[in-house]
Each structure stands twice: as structure tokens, then as C-alpha cells.
Amino acid sequence: MVWLLSMGAVLATSLLSGVLGMGGGMILMGVFALLMPIPTAMVLHGVTQAAANGSRAWIHRQHIQFEVLSFYVLGSLLVLLGFFWLVITVETSWFFVFLGSLALLSLVTPKSLQLDVTRPVTAFVCGIAVTLCQLLVGVSGSVLDIFYLNSPLNRFQVVATKAFTQTLGHLFKLIFFGWLLWTDPQAMGAPWWMFVAVVALATSGSKIGAWVLHRMNDQAFRYWSKWIIGVIGCLYLYKGVAILW
């Protein structure tokens, strides 16, 4: 039952992210964290989201803004090296508090910050912030959104570029948590076929999402993005506070 629920969540959340470019990974991380230990959830989530975002980036590859990526990757690598040095992990209660707070962060961040991911310095800071969140709580979509508030990109460029950068982030997460589980193989807990299944489901969700995206306008795209991420953030914040209480 755990694996059936997990596979259903993979398909549904990949479809959501395929349409909005956000939200799916955050929902899926919460589901996995409820069903399995955090390190296992991180690895399975990393495989799923690397497949979902990678396939989405490939589908919309002509819209990827590659000038953003070099500075983004530099910031990401610095954070990854720091985590290997410090070996940082988060408890389940604080995991959900951080997850919910991150979801709401993009909704309360003022546009006056003038964050534009197409600027080199902003892309570098984005790489640091996003990878930090990836390695702490497994997701970073709401933080990534902040850097797109004032970007001149259209919905296809937003989805494509975010998908590429998120693919890198999930690969870094796989490297770090895969290393942690390699040092303690008994902690893995997920059957091998689950990894094959989630890749297939995530890719399928991305393809269906791309079909829906072509039938949506930019106004609807931004409207539904805000509402969905707000509801997700409130639910996870409540869950984390309830565990702490």
C-alpha cells in the first residue's frame, strides 16, 4: 500500500509540475516523508524529480535560457561541497515547518526586491539558496520562484529553465543522500523496482502536463501557481507545528 500510494503521488505531482512548473515536487516530498524515513524519501524523491524535471526540460528544451545556468551551477556546487563537509540533516518536525515556510515565502516576498534570475549575480545567489533548500528539505521550488518574480521570461521559458535547474538540484541531492545511505545500506528500505516505476510515472506526468500547458494562457498560469503553492504551504506548516506540539 505504501508503494502504491507513492506511485500515485508521483504521477499526480509530475502532472501538476508539468503544467505549472512548480508545486508537484513539494507535495511529493511531503507524501514521501510521511511514508518512509527522511533519507530514503530524499533519494526516492531525487530520482523521481530528476526524471520529471529532466523530461520536462527536454520537452521544452528550445525555451531553456542557458545564460542563467553557469552562475547558478557555481553557487550550487559551493553549497554541495559545504554539506559534504558539515553533513547536515533535519528532524521530521522541523522538516515540515521548513517545507511549509518555503512554500509561503514566494507569496509574501515583495516584488520591490527586483530579483531577476537572468542577471549573473542573482543567478549565483539563486544557485546557493535553491541548493541549500534542496539539501535541507528536498525541495526548493518556492524559493526558485522568488528569483523569477521580475524576470522577463514567458511561461514556456519559466517552465523550461526552472526544470533544467531543478534537475541539477535533485542530482546534487541524490549525490549527497545517496552517499549517506551508502554508508548505512540498511537504511534504504525501498525496493529496486520502485525506482524504475517512479521514473516512468514522472516522465508520463510531464508529457501530459506539457499538453495542458499549451492550452493555458500566462494569466491563468500565474494565478493557479499562487493559489496552489499557498494551500500547500499552509498544510505543511500546520503538520510541522502539530508534530512539534
Fold and architecture overview:
By secondary structure, the protein is mostly helical. The chain has one domain. It has 10 helices and no strands. The longest helix is centred in the C-terminal third of the chain and has 28 residues, at 155-182. The model has no long low-confidence stretch (mean pLDDT 76).
How much helical structure, as a percent, in the residues?
Answer: over 70%
Element pattern in H and E: HHHHHHHHHH
Distance between the termini: 29 Å
The rounded Rg comes to: 17 Å
Average predicted local confidence, pLDDT: 76
Shape estimate: globular
- Number of helices, where a helix is a run of at least 4 consecutive DSSP H or I residues: 10
Please, how many domains?
1
SS class: mainly alpha
Give unreliable regions as ranges.
Answer: none
Summarize the biggest pleated sheet. none
Beta-strand segment tally: 0
β content, as a range? under 5%
